[in-house]
User: Which sequence fits this backbone?
């Protein structure tokens, strides 16, 4: 029985180590997503100014074609924002799932350590 508990404890330790590694990877991914979000927001804010400059330089400041292009660019911008928020929501769900798994692994390790100590006391 002690061997079984020892094996279970070792497996639990490996699981916790793996979960900690995955947790670190998730933190890196989250930081990357935040960096990408910042870059996209900056690009989104800069795009209207770039568009206005290009329009001024090309002399296409008015007319139906200009309005159509402006409308198209707005739609593309909104779609890009929607994709960003969808990706961020997906990353958040993955991180929360990993946190729950890590908490479960830690609880298992704690319970196994307690059982091992109890068995050791009974044998001793």
Assistant:
């Amino acid at each position: 029985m002690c061997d079984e508990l020892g094996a279970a404890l070792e497996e639990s330790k490996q699981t916790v180590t793996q979960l900690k590694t995955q947790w670190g990877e998730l933190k890196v991914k989250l930081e990357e997503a935040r960096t990408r979000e910042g870059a996209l927001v900056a690009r989104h804010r800069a795009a209207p100014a770039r568009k206005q400059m290009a329009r001024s330089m090309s002399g296409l400041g008015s007319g139906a074609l200009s309005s159509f292009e402006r409308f198209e660019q707005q739609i593309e911008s909104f779609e890009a924002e929607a994709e960003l928020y969808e990706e961020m929501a997906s990353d958040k769900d993955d991180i929360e799932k990993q946190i729950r798994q890590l908490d479960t692994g830690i609880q298992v390790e704690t319970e196994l350590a307690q059982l091992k100590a109890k068995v050791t006391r009974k044998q001793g």
Q: What stands out?
A: The chain has a mean pLDDT of 80. The chain has two helices and no strands.
